[in-house]
């Protein structure tokens, strides 16, 4: 079971596939379908008048600089922050990335929720390991050639149309491109260190071009236009696969993904649970909102001795008055059925 408790099924299905590290404690759990958190600033708040940086006091000795929601309109006057390792400029009014070249010791740069239209002027930040430019208005990924130490790149909720100009980021471990306008999975061959890839809420029609990602353990491609599970044969280290809210009709193509602990195929068009009896490490199985109507299908899960969570609600099976009891009898290791824990 993941660290957070799940009480609303649809919220849970949407959220579980999204990266947990993008955003702060209040805003990081955006829905994978792009639903904006109520705490997110409204369009009206974006019309605030920017403040003059001269009015903000900066501590030259500070290593973790937090300038969140300060109505900053322009990045300037930060040269004194020579010791800064992390710089957070989230939820401001910034339109241009600029005047950061002197901060060469930066490890983390957070520009989440601004009005930035272009990735630029980052070439001097060669020590940068984390860059978050989520919730901006970027149309493409560019100008990251010098950021070879980058491990985490968050570009959630922009207007990016293609995956490009990231192939050289061989140290990258996490790539978040959810809620954009991407149609094709491509140009990832050089990301040999990538462990987590988030592509939820795009316009992707096919699982492809993933063969080189041998270290990938988490793949989220929820809320796209996928109709077939394929192209995953080389992802032998995959542990979590999120495919909810697509158009999948058959469970297949998982023969080599024997390390899977979480499989989410909720809200698709699947009629039968099949071809997963070899997934003996499975702990969570999400199959709600499909067309499962045969109780014998649960036999496919009997080899998963550590299975703890099963979601099957809003399938024809749920109409059975003995729904929960039959699941418990068929899968005795299960501790949670849908959003409700089993009481002993």
From TrEMBL:
Keywords, ordered alphabetically: Leucine-rich repeat, Nucleus, Repeat
Main localization category: nucleus
This chain's source organism reads: Nothobranchius furzeri (Turquoise killifish)
Cellular localisation: Nucleus
- Where does the U2A'/phosphoprotein 32 family A C-terminal domain lie? 320-338
Q: Name the source's superkingdom.
A: Eukaryota
Per the record, where are the segments of Basic and acidic residues compositional bias? 13-29
Among the entry's GO cellular component annotations, what is one? Answer: nucleus
Protein name listed in UniProt: Protein phosphatase 1 regulatory subunit 7
Asked if the record carries the keyword Repeat, the reply is yes
Tell me the protein family, please.
Belongs to the SDS22 family.
Q: Where is this region: Disordered?
A: 10-52
Q: Which Pfam families does the UniProt entry name for this protein?
A: LRR_9
| InterPro entries recorded | Cilia_flagella_integrity, Leu-rich_rpt, Leu-rich_rpt_typical-subtyp, LRR_dom_sf, U2A'_phosphoprotein32A_C
């Amino acid at each position: 079971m993941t660290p957070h408790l799940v009480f609303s099924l649809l919220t849970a299905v949407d959220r579980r596939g999204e990266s947990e590290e993008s955003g702060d404690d209040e805003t990081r759990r955006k829905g994978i379908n792009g639903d904006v958190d109520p705490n997110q600033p409204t369009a009206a708040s974006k019309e605030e008048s920017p403040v003059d940086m001269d009015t903000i006091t900066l501590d030259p000795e500070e290593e973790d600089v937090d300038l969140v929601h300060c109505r900053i309109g322009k990045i300037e006057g930060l040269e004194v922050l020579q010791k800064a390792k992390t710089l957070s400029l989230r939820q401001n009014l910034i339109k241009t990335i600029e005047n950061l070249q002197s901060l060469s010791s930066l490890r983390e740069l957070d520009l989440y929720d601004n009005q930035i239209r272009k990735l630029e002027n980052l070439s001097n930040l060669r020590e940068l390991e984390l860059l978050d430019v989520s919730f901006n208005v970027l149309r493409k990924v560019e100008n990251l050639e010098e950021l070879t130490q980058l491990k985490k790149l968050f570009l959630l909720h922009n207007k990016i149309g293609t995956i490009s100009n990231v192939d050289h980021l061989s140290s990258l471990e996490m790539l978040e491109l959810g809620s954009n306008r991407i149609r094709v999975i491509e140009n990832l061959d050089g990301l040999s260190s990538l462990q987590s890839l988030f592509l939820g809420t795009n316009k992707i029609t096919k699982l492809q071009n993933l063969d080189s990602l041998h270290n990938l353990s988490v793949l989220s491609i929820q809320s796209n236009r996928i109709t077939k599970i394929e192209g995953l044969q080389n992802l032998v280290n995959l542990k979590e696969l999120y495919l909810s809210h697509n158009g999948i009709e058959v469970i297949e193509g998982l023969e080599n993904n024997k390390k899977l602990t979480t499989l989410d195929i909720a809200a698709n068009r699947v009629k039968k649970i099949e071809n997963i009896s070899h997934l003996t490490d499975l702990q969570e199985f999400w199959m709600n909102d499909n067309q499962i109507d045969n109780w014998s299908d649960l036999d496919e899960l009997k080899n998963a001795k550590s299975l703890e969570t099963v979601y099957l609600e809003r399938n024809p099976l749920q109409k059975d008055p003995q729904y929960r009891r039959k699941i418990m009898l068929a899968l005795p290791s299960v501790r949670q059925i849908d959003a409700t824990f089993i009481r002993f």
